[in-house]
Amino acid sequence: MKLRKILTLGMCIAGSVALCGAAQASNKIQGGGTVVTVPGVGLAPPAAMNGFNPLLTDSAYDSEAENLMYQPLLWVTRNFTINYDLSIARKVVVGPQHRSYTVYLSQKWKWSDGVPVTTADVAYTYHMLMKLGPLYAGWDAGGFPQEIRSFTVLGPYEFRVVTKRSVNPKWFELSGLLDFTPYPAHSWKKYSIKEMNDNMTNPDFFSVVDGPFRLESFHAGRYASMVANAAYSGPDKPHIHRLVFRFLNSNASVFFALKSGTVQLGNLPAPLYPARSQLINDRISIIGPGWDFNYLGFNYANPKLSFIRDVLVRQAMMHAINQDLMIRVLGFGHGVRAYGLIPGNPPVYLSPEAKELLKQGAYDPQLADKLLDEAGWHRGPDGIRQKDGKKMEFTLYMPPSMVRGPTLLTEMFAKVGILVRLREMPFNEVYAKMIDPHDLHWQAVYLAWSQSSFPTGGSIFKCGGIQNAYHYCNPKMDALADQIRMDNGLDALYKFQNYFTEQQPVIVLPYMKTFVVAVKNLHGVKRAITPSGNFYPQFLWISHDK
Questions:
Q1: Model's pTM, two decimal places?
Q2: Cα 215 to Cα 80, 295, 448, distances in angstroms
């Protein structure tokens, strides 16, 4: 019954001519109202949210809501500088030899119940992460805790982190220190880890926040509702009263929800871009590409995929993919090539070699054929490559909303003698298979991975890394990644990304821009959704004009 009420509110807002109330026409920002959207807006195809505790989740969809509830210790801009007006910290002082980091907190921030945000909250986060250990998805992704020698509270608004060795200060600030985001100690410290897990979707657990929104209600498989935090201490207080994330899982459902007005802000599914003229009451913005990378990932522990351990095979796959064709078909020309894990927009971290490769492209099916022959895989009577009586074939899992890309890959790989079978599966099920250490039967996935502000891949490719669901291990790559943590500048990052592109531990796919649709009376969309896909709905506002 409550869902019907929310949808009624959404439909009322969507009617850009007749709205709930008769406000005078005005160009001034107007407050109030409800916006209904979908998880992943501006970033990825929609999927359900499953939890809201940032200490215990690692899905980009969950993080989208969590980031609205909890203000970061350091707010990183699109150009990878720190905006201290929006950060809990007011400054960071780096000590001699880049081994100590003293952080001073701003005294303006308060929790929604009026309690000041202090180093007690930072200490709570630190000790909880140490207690969680590898259960924390960010374990060692940004140097926590392997690089840390000590954490010391120096006062209610000052703490110091000392590292075990000299580290790259930019990397540590943009990666390591971000793990010290404060969470409400006075509200959460009474809960055990089990109790926190049991309350992953309980709005009462998340009643104390310091971000612009708080969780109002959650209904599994249906929607999550958030309301503005009236006590938000930041400079950009929300204009809207309520934000609803509807959980839709197919391109058709998203399109018809936009068309009917039951969703006022969402991604126009790329396959339905030609039908955009049907959305007569909406505006379309082209966003991105995001700060992430798309990829074809493999289970290196599956013995049926032993061929994928050969770098020549992975290089052949890279050269077999016509990325320009994928951009034309999947993104209607709105996309860019990608061959490594370092995003190219903005290009601040790209090596000279990466820039040249992006310019030239890597599509070369003849070279792919040559590499596969060199690896000992030759075409059989049916055209599929064989070696030692085994065929080069695999099954690719994909979310239902991503069928077109894998279909193209299937055709491209077939041309060089690789057989791919496609199997649709909801994102949550795909993810569950990947992270289950006992499930070694899955073979390949078609997904995307969000990057950190200093992009090194974290622990996703590290031997035994907590996020390494692919069971990939390359000691040389680990050594190059470790060097990034120590060396100032970008040379170490250049060497790492060039080696990554050569090795292709996952087959990197092109970036697609996102088509974001908003009803005409919804404003502030370009501020609310950044080019990198971050979502800041506090900038949204609704005009209540007749």
A1: 0.79
A2: 29, 32, 26
In the block, tokens 């991503």 appear at 402
Q: Whole-angstrom Cα distance, residue 408 to residue 420? A: 11
Report the run of H or E that residue 335 belongs to, with start and end. strand 335-336
- Token pair recorded at residue 108: 């303006």
Q: Is-contact 304 456, C-beta < 8 A?
A: no
> How many other CB atoms sit within 10 Å of the CB of residue 41?
25
Q: How far apart are CA 330 and CA 71, in angstroms?
A: 35
How far is it, in rounded angstroms, from Cα 311 to Cα 165?
Answer: 34
Phi first, then psi: what are they for 279, rounded to 5°? -90, 70
Distance CA 528, CA 33 (A): 16
> What is the distance between the alpha carbons of residues 477 and 470, in angstroms, rounded to a whole number?
15
325-355 exposure pattern, b = at least 16 Cβ within 10 A, e = fewer = ebbebbbbebbbbbbbbbbbbeeebbbeebe
Query: How do 148-155 and 158-163 pair as beta strands?
Result: antiparallel
pLDDT in tens, 39-75: 999 887 788 999 999 999 988 899 999 999 999 999 9
Which of 446, 141, 142, 450 is CA-nearest to residue 293?
450
**How far apart (Å, rounded) are the C-alpha atoms in residues 329 and 412?**
13
Show the tokens assigned to 360: 């030239």
